[in-house]
Design brief:
This protein is of the alpha+beta class. It has 3 domains: about 60 residues, Arc Repressor Mutant, subunit A; about 80 residues, Alpha-Beta Plaits; about 70 residues, YebC, transcriptional regulation domain (Alpha-Beta Plaits, 2-Layer Sandwich), CATH 3.30.70.980. Helix content is about 45%, strand content about 20%. The strands form 2 sheets. It has a 4-stranded antiparallel sheet with strand order 3-1-2-8. Strands 5-6-4-7 form a 4-stranded antiparallel sheet, with helices on both faces. β5 and β6 form a beta hairpin. The protein is globular and about 45 Å long. The two termini are about 15 Å apart.
Length: about 240
């Protein structure tokens, strides 16, 4: 299992514009509100909320914005009701794509996602059309330039409960069972680790290579536009790029 495609995306995102950063704040606020609705407003007793807040702070989201989202979801203010919907389909070149959305208007979001697939040479399928090509895992990436002692990082990760550890160019990839994801993250955080990226979601079982230049261009444009859409929180794919 490798996150090399993911790592190239992460490095590109480090140079996001202010406008893109604003979109990140909006998406983070939605994640915070969903986490509060599901597990309460106290981060100490809500692992998902604690994780989302950590990611929001890593994206330089102001504390005022974070607290405002928590209060809205907890009922101290009027907040939107969002539902989580996963859309599936194939991008150009036969790449399997899963799109996780948080929306207050499923008709709008479904139309937007379908349009992005169609416009860039892909097609949106029904539920289950590509999910069999993925498995649920927790993925934690640690920058190996920041934490150079590979053996130490590996032992700390395995002792924390990780089920797999690999070293790739520029980072270490820690893989967890979905149920152990937050426990492993909390344990590594307590040991002083910071994360280049972390995610709980579908991970490809197999990867798809694409060599056609037009298909590659379509894929890049589609994934970029999906990242920009306010309703789309995360996009998972099995493109081996």
């Amino acid at each position: 299992m490798s996150g090399h495609s993911k790592w190239s995306t992460i490095k590109r995102k480090k140079g996001e514009t202010d406008s893109a950063r604003g979109a990140v704040f909006t998406k983070s606020a939605k994640e915070i509100m969903l986490a509060v609705k599901q597990g309460g407003a106290d981060p100490e007793n809500n692992s998902r909320l604690r994780d989302v807040i950590s990611k929001a702070k890593a994206n330089n989201m102001p504390n005022d914005n974070i607290n405002r989202a928590i209060k809205k979801a907890a009922g101290a203010g009027e907040g939107e009701e969002y539902e989580e919907i996963i859309y599936e389909g194939y991008g150009s070149g036969g790449v399997a794509v899963m799109v996780r959305t948080l929306t207050n208007n499923r008709n709008r979001t479904a139309g937007d996602v379908r349009h992005l697939f169609d416009k860039h040479g892909g097609n949106m399928g029904v539920a289950g059309s590509v999910s069999f090509l993925f498995q649920q895992k927790g993925i934690i990436l640690i920058d190996s330039e920041e934490f150079e002692e590979e053996e130490t990082v590996m032992m700390d990760a395995l002792e924390a409960g990780a089920e797999d550890f690999t070293s790739e160019e520029g980072y270490y990839e820690v893989v967890t069972d979905p149920q152990d994801y937050y426990t492993v993250k909390d344990a590594l955080t307590a040991k002083g680790y910071t994360f280049a990226h972390s995610n709980l979601g579908p991970v490809p079982i197999t990867w798809t290579q694409v060599s056609d230049a037009e298909a590659i261009d379509n894929l890049e444009k589609m994934l970029e536009k999906m990242e920009e859409n306010d309703d789309i929180q995360e996009v998972f794919n099995n493109w081996d790029n």
